[in-house]
């Protein structure tokens, strides 16, 4: 790209592809173990989270109609215990996730900065410095959102979906399949919106220069 | 004024939008509640009572309610987003305006990266608050209220038992809020530092490379990078301390419902159907509590950014800039009466001491002196970049402080020592002070500054984009473009601060010849190190440590055999040597 001024856009030349995720994967690699532990924590929390509604179901279906007060108290204590497990899991989840996320971001920022030191004069001469600054600092913060919130919610939600689906199929496979009938449409919508957002975000970030 | 009143002053003009969005949100909560009620009906009427004819109408009603709920939610989300974007736009506008108002003193004491962090990261925290956090809080409050209303209707005793837990949650949210506030301020400050460091590294990339100090820079970056990481972990520590408790108490509501509700049912004061319905609305009560902790983080993030932005907006320049007013043109009389100056943060070190002189239009003043003798400060006082600590600067016999700053500066052109060109075309750089110039006029001032010849030789001529600060141009070329820019304004007072230091003697005398034609009616100040730059001046001030040591014309000063003569002798010798060297060379 030739020398440009503050109000000239630099088109993103590379199309989105999966190799971008692969590159992020390289950053995650050193924290594989930590991520695995986090995954276990999330799994435990999700299973414990399913217990509450399950206890409620048992209580309403059986214990309360049978007027069994001691069993009711017992199941309530179990319910509270499940809440304690969820709480502990949450505590460690927040800690581990932030640590992994922030470490990865730190690594990425350092990589970009180190790379920046190697770039020739022409890179700095050909564009306003604001454009470069935004790349090093602000874009990474966007990734931070992806890592700290997006990635974790994604993992947590996938686990939830899997556990829920297992339960649903166990109860009634046919009904579950019916309820999944709209899934392809949802997928299509997500794909369309994703592409639109990417375009829109590019326009936005090109304007985000001082 | 607290942060919320402050942000309201920006949101106020969209009051109608905010109110309609909130009303739509309220209406929306009706559809949020109706869906579980409908599904309850479905179970009671269709499944239990076997009234199959109701199945389709109820299902249609549910689909309808879902559609309305989704559409209305989309509408109020868009409304809030609009309001947030508008507020962000206005605040950014105000900040930018403020930056134009602020004086040298402010920019001497604030890092560029800091200011940029205000304009980007902090701005976004505010937009996020108005467009997202606000309606989420509204949703939480409304849903919570609706849930209590509906549940009261089913069983008031059980509802009261649940409401009894809420003060505990309130205490926790308060505590968390308090703990989170300083942490988020720290994050913002750390981000500012990181931003500043990177900004300086990018701007100074030539110096870094020239001194091959990349490793040192990386080490420095590592320090700030780690600090920013640590601050974010601190915030996670606050979250991990409070969020599990908040989440746990929200979960406890379900246990209370089960245990107490179960006991009520067993005692016979409540039906099992009611308990099921009650339980169906649990999430409406739960969700706001679970969300509260996360929302508090967002609120504190907003507060931290507010503090930063409002600090900037509340900074008052020492020299006030008012709106441009039409008035009589400045003729160009400049008088200094016993002017002394010291920087406010170092009052013990005077930069100028008792400087007095008087110039009238058409005259040229040469200012000579060693580096640090106060030459640039002297001319900065004329344009009121600073005000004198003692004494008076008079422009057209009126104290400079009485002149509206922008009117004064409109008539003063300055070629500064540290030349800044925008990353824009040469044409736009030259016409910066006078955008109405046509191409012919631009070329004329460029010719006077002896810049036309080299600009014309560039492949894209006047359309050539120069890099930030004019990289890609030689020092002399930059000086000549900035001289053309100063001349384009057609000022009454022209100040040239070391403007021809980087051009050769031949070009300098060419420029000087052209300038004398142009400056017949103007007051001109020429700061220089070279005698050749000032020898034609009407009078010359020789500055030493802030004091005028000698004054007079070139001939007078040479005859005096003082400091000026010493410099003259030295430079003359230098010139002879140079010329001698030239004859020996090939």
Q: Helices and strands in order, then pairings?
A:
The complex is a heterodimer of chains A (210) and B (586).
Chain A: H1 18-28, H2 32-63, H3 69-118, H4 121-125, H5 129-171, H6 173-179, H7 183-207
Helix pairs in contact in A: 2-3, 2-5, 3-5, 5-6
Chain B: H1 3-11, H2 15-48, H3 55-101, H4 104-109, H5 112-154, H6 156-163, H7 166-203, H8 205-210, H9 214-267, H10 272-280, H11 282-314, E1 334-341, E2 352-359, E3 364-369, H12 375-382, E4 390-395, E5 398-399, H13 405-410, E6 412-415, H14 426-430, H15 439-448, H16 452-457, H17 475-488, E7 493-497, H18 505-518, E8 523-528, H19 531-534, E9 539-544, E10 547-552, H20 554-560, H21 563-584
Parallel strand pairs in B: 3-8, 3-9, 6-7, 7-8
Antiparallel strand pairs in B: 1-2, 1-4, 4-5, 9-10
Helix pairs in contact in B: 2-3, 2-5, 3-5, 5-6, 5-7, 5-11, 7-9, 7-11, 9-10, 9-11, 15-17
Total count of strands of chain B = 10
Oligomer: heterodimer
CATH topology of the largest domain in chain B: ABC transporter transmembrane region fold
Count of alpha and pi helical runs of chain A: 7
CATH architecture identity of the largest domain in chain A: Up-down Bundle
CATH superfamily placement of the largest domain in chain A: ABC transporter type 1, transmembrane domain
The N- to C-terminal Cα distance of chain B equals 76 Å
Instruction: Please tell me the overall pLDDT of chain A.
Output: 82
The main pleated sheet of chain A reads as: none
Overall, the morphology of chain B is elongated
Radius of gyration of chain A: 24 Å
| Element-level helix/strand string of chain A | HHHHHHH
Give the helix level of chain B as a range of percent.
55-70%
| CATH architecture annotation name of the largest domain in chain B | Up-down Bundle
């Amino acid at each position: 790209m030739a020398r440009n001024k503050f109000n000239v856009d630099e088109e993103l030349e590379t199309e989105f592809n999966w190799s971008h995720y692969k590159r992020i994967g390289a950053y995650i690699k050193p924290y594989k173990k930590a991520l695995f532990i986090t995954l276990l924590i999330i799994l435990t929390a999700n299973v414990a989270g399913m217990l509450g509604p399950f206890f409620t179901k048992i209580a309403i279906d059986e214990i309360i109609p049978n007027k069994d007060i001691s069993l009711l108290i017992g199941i309530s204590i179990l319910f509270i215990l499940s809440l304690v497990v969820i709480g502990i899991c949450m505590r460690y989840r927040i800690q581990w996730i932030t640590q992994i996320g922030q470490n990865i971001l730190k690594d990425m920022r350092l990589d970009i900065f180190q790379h920046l030191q190697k770039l020739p004069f022409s890179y700095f001469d050909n564009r306003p410095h604001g454009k470069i600054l935004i790349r090093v600092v602000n874009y990474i913060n966007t990734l931070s959102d992806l890592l700290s919130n997006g990635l974790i919610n994604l993992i947590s939600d996938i686990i939830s979906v899997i556990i829920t689906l297992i339960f649903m199929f166990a109860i009634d496979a046919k009904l579950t399949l019916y309820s999944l009938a709209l899934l392809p449409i949802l997928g299509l919508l997500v794909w369309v919106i994703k592409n639109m957002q990417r375009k829109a975000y590019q326009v936005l970030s090109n304007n985000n220069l001082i | 004024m607290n942060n919320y009143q402050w942000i309201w002053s920006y949101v106020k003009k969209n009051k109608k939008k905010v109110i309609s969005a909130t009303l739509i949100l309220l209406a929306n909560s009706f559809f949020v509640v109706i869906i579980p009620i409908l599904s309850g009906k479905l179970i009671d009427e269709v499944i239990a009572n076997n009234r199959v004819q109701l199945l389709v109408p109820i299902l249609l009603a549910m689909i309808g309610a879902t559609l309305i709920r989704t559409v209305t939610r989309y509408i109020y989300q868009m409304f809030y987003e609009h309001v947030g974007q508008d507020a962000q736009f206005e605040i950014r506008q105000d900040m930018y305006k403020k930056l134009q108002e602020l004086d040298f003193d402010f920019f001497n004491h604030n890092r560029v990266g800091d200011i940029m962090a205000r304009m980007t990261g902090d701005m976004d925290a505010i937009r996020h608050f108005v467009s997202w956090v606000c309606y989420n809080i509204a949703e939480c409050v409304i849903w919570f209220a609706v849930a209590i209303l509906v549940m009261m209707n089913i069983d008031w005793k059980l509802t009261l038992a649940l409401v009894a837990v809420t003060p505990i949650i309130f205490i926790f949210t308060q505590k968390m809020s308090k703990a989170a506030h300083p942490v988020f301020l720290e994050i913002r400050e750390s981000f500012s530092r990181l931003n500043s460091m990177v900004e300086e590294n990018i701007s100074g990339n030539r110096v870094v490379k020239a001194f091959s100090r990349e490793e040192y820079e990386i080490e420095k970056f590592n320090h700030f990078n780690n600090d920013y990481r640590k601050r974010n972990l601190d915030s996670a520590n606050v979250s991990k301390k409070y969020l599990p408790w908040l989440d746990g108490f929200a979960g406890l509501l379900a246990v209370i419902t089960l245990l107490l509700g179960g006991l009520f049912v067993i005692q016979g004061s409540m039906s099992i159907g009611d308990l099921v319905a009650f339980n169906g609305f649990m999430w409406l009560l739960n969700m706001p509590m679970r969300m509260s902790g996360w929302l508090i983080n967002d609120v504190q993030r907003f507060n931290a950014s507010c503090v930063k932005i409002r600090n900037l907006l509340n900074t008052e320049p020492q020299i006030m800039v008012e709106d441009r007013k039409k008035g009589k043109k400045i003729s160009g009389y400049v008088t200094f009466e016993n002017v002394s100056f010291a920087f406010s943060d170092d009052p013990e070190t005077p930069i100028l001491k008792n400087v007095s002189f008087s110039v009238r239009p058409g005259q040229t003043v040469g200012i000579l002196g060693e580096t640090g003798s106060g030459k640039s400060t002297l001319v900065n006082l004329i344009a009121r970049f600073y005000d004198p600590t003692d004494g008076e600067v008079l422009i057209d016999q009126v104290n400079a402080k009485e002149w509206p700053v922008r009117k004064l500066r409109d008539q003063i052109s300055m070629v500064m020592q540290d030349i800044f060109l925008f990353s824009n075309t040469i044409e736009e750089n030259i016409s910066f002070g006078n955008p109405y110039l046509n191409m012919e006029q631009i070329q004329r001032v460029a010719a006077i500054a002896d810049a036309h010849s080299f600009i014309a030789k560039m492949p894209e001529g006047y359309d050539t984009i120069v890099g930030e600060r004019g990289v890609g141009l030689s020092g002399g070329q930059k000086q000549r473009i900035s001289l053309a820019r100063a001349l384009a304004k057609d000022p009454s007072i022209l100040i040239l601060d070391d403007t021809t230091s980087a051009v050769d003697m031949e070009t300098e005398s060419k420029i000087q010849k052209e300038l004398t034609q142009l400056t017949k009616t103007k007051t001109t100040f020429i700061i220089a190190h070279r005698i050749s730059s000032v020898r034609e001046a009407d009078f010359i001030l020789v500055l030493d440590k802030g004091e005028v040591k000698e004054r007079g014309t070139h001939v007078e000063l040479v005859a005096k055999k003082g400091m000026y003569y010493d410099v003259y002798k030295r430079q003359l010798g230098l010139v002879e040597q140079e010329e001698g060297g030239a004859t020996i060379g090939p």
